[in-house]
Write a structure and sequence with these properties.
homodimer; alpha/beta; Cobalt-precorrin-4 Transmethylase, domain 1; 2 domains; five-stranded parallel β-sheet; five-stranded mixed β-sheet; 7 helices; globular
């Protein structure tokens, strides 16, 4: 007997940014697996079972969720943001690939959500208005040298960048090193945005530049957007500036 | 007198993927500006005014919307997907920067949406599970040489890529040229996904590889995802394959 497993993205935190299809999937599920702070955002009914786990336990969590689905559970795996962006969808796929045959028979559905960079970008204008990339700064899962290579490639090619997992207690220096790396390629007045809890009451968005970008202003839940040399900030009387990357780009190389 | 201007993203087409904050903003607005097919997706009440315009008229549309807001209108500018990703938010910012002072006093709000690459990715697994980039293949707004430079940089650095605006009647050869360019850098068995109308009744998702990728399978509304060399496809008995990019990457260079 095999149940179903739905991997949902709650969006960045404001319940008004959770899609109706995700809300409906949550209402219909029996068992919920996820990092505790994401499960805390759900309003479960009696009988709906919460299986909270710690950060960095994605594979154990995936195994537990897949086993429960194989037992016939209607399982919901919960991510913040979008489940496909540095989140649980890849962990579930990895578990399926390397796990018992029974897991390949589970009906798996992924329901997208608003990922952090889109929510942060929306709060300040349109910094992702042209070509951009998303990079996880965590060197738990890839060598730091690869991260530096990607930062340099993206900066040299003129991509706007969004950083996920920028810093944590166990990874205190990586964000500073990333800024140092970018300062060798990009103009020091390149726009940098620190965005935390976009759309939530405790939202904190700060616009600065590469020269002044201070890693201490970020935590695990911060999404950082580094502009391209084309990214602009427009001042407005009595209103916050609008940060945007123009839709057109004039030159093939700077 | 100055009204408000809200730039909303409807998501890729399934109304269940439109966020509640966007639905509420639409209910409260007086005037709607956008590309006709996006406005067709709204259910407007009597008294709500529709100002449809053609594709590629983004700046004229922005000017009209900002003028209406300055007259006191509660204006809604409508994008498909996310308004910040190759869509109207950057066009409005550009208009504000280059327009009359009055436009800088309009209260502008951007409400994010599910962008096409997230919706397509969700339908097949987690191809965007590690570092990735989004590239518009339209050379209306940037030189083709810059697009090729970005394709090569992204492929060499191991980013998964999502292509927006891959092809149109006026731009028939660009997608084929992009695949040719990537074939010189990436393995020919790199996963390629053509995703159209994700989550809608007329959805069409095709998984192929770089050797077989046929530009004729794409149209204006197709989002194409090109994997990295790490992207994998897992076969499942009786179910479609799961395509995903692992959370870990082993090497700094291939």
């Amino acid at each position: 007997m095999s149940g179903r497993l739905t991997i949902v993205g709650l969006g960045p935190g404001n319940p008004e940014q959770t899609t109706p299809e995700v809300t409906r999937a949550i209402a219909g599920a029996s068992d919920f697996y996820g990092y505790a702070p994401y499960l805390d955002r759900l309003s479960l009914r009696p009988g709906q079972i919460r299986h909270a786990s710690d950060n960095r336990e994605e594979l154990d969590r995936s195994a537990a969720a897949l086993n429960r689905a194989c037992e016939g559970g209607d399982v919901c795996v919960v991510s913040g943001g979008d489940p496909g962006v540095f989140a649980m969808a890849a962990a579930i796929c990895e578990a399926v690939e390397n796990g018992p045959d029974a897991w390949r028979q589970v009906e798996i559905t992924v329901l997208p959500g608003i990922t952090a960079m889109l929510a942060v970008a929306a709060r300040i204008g349109a910094p992702l208005g042209h070509d951009f990339c998303a990079i996880s700064l965590s060197d738990n899962l890839k060598p730091w040298e690869l991260i530096e290579k990607r930062l340099a490639a993206a900066a040299e090619a003129g991509f706007v960048m969004a950083f996920y997992n920028p810093i944590s207690r166990a990874r205190p220096w990586q964000l500073g090193k990333a800024f140092d790396c970018l300062r060798t390629v990009l103009p020091v007045d390149t726009v940098v945005v620190f965005g935390r809890a976009a759309g939530r009451p405790d939202e904190r968005i700060e616009i600065t530049d590469l020269a002044a970008a201070d890693p201490a202003k970020a935590d695990m839940a911060t999404c950082i957007i580094v502009g391209s040399p084309e990214t602009r900030s427009i001042s407005r009387p009595g209103l916050p500036p609008l940060v945007y990357t123009p839709r057109f780009a004039k030159e093939a190389s700077r």
